Amino acid sequence: MQQSDLLDVFRALANENRQDILFRVFSDKEAHSVGEIAERMGIAQSTASEHLTILRKAGILQSEKVDRQVRYTVNKKAVNEVLSMLQHWLTCC
């Protein structure tokens, strides 16, 4: 992971609604569709879709098409890389 990737993660997480989606919806460690996320958050599907796209492009979420539905999960590998980079940065000097 490069510094620009890390900046993308920070930008994605700068929005409180995206933080809320991560902590309220994905805390169960399950895959969720846009419709499920929108319903849980009480927002429009288009709004949920925008937030999920930003989180996916930043590498925080990954998506998989199941039948006609896209399911989102946390990209654990990418999140662990970000945390590892932050830990290294905080302890290197």
Topology:
Blueprint: H1 3-13, H2 16-25, E1 32-33, H3 34-41, H4 45-57, E2 61-66, E3 69-74, H5 76-91
Give an overview in words.
With 93 residues, this protein is of the alpha+beta class. It has one domain (3-91): Winged helix-like DNA-binding domain superfamily/Winged helix DNA-binding domain (Arc Repressor Mutant, subunit A). The protein contains five helices and three strands, in the order ααβααββα. Strands 1-3-2 form a three-stranded antiparallel beta sheet. Helix 1 runs antiparallel to helix 4 (45-57) and helix 3 (34-41) packs across helix 4 (45-57). The radius of gyration is 14 Å and the shape is elongated.
Summarize the structure.
The protein has helices spanning 3-13, 16-25, 34-41, 45-57, 76-91; strands at residues 32-33, 61-66, 69-74. The chain is of the alpha+beta class and 93 residues long.
